[in-house]
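quick one: adenosine-5'-diphosphate bound model?
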Amino acid sequence: MSIQAILDNARREKRVLLTEVESKQVIEEAGINVVKAKLARSIKEAVAVSKEFGFPVVLKVASPDIVHKSDIGGVKVGLTNATQVSKAYREIMTSVKQKEPKATIHGVSVQPMAKPGVEIIIGMSKDPQFGPVIMFGLGGILVEILKDVSFRIVPLAKRDAREMIRDIKGYPVLEGYRGQPPSDVAALEDMILKVSAFVERTPVIKELDLNPVFAYKDGAIAVDARIVLEADAPK
Ligand code: ADP
Ligand code: MG
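yep, here:
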């Protein structure tokens, strides 16, 4: 489905939150490297899609009403065979139905398990004064507790992307430490610029989060994606 078709569909259903599967399709169309995800509506489908991608896979609850999937037992990683996929599907459904009984559940998002990397977050939100602003930071505890992030106003130039990465206190983590290889900072710059260009030409997007992105010695890939649309913007 094209970006426009996904946005139109959400609008028709009067939704502003895109699911992870939809968000990733949009992000991929925008040329951003992302772990592909496919919706499975039953255990049988989940197993079939897992075999199509190849093991190990990750299963996540697919719902337009759920923002933080792992908080409610909605994410199972490192599944290596069909039995584990079936079990994970059942466990996700039981947990999510118990914790979010009112949520509409489409099924699960099935995706390949990405190899571990340095966790990054790239986000966009709209400032009432400056409009779209891009945020960059290290993922996990560093962002949540230390708020070690940097911001730049859209549209970003190459130099902004370069600087905002080097601005965070945690930058040495990306240079490699204790024998860890350095991360591909050029790939992160490229991803930031693609997000900037994409949100600039797609004003209906109110918020965008790539959290986490895994950064590697070579390349980077978005592992989770979330897009929120403007409630009353013209399409
Ligand atoms: P949420 O942010 O909604 O709780 P995520 O999709 O970010 O859910 O998943 C939670 C965590 O699981 C991620 O931070 C990441 O560490 C891990 N994870 C998710 N998807 C994958 C994947 N495809 N490959 C490897 N790890 C993953
Ligand atoms: Mg996430």
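The CA atoms of residues 72 and 99 lie 6 Å apart.
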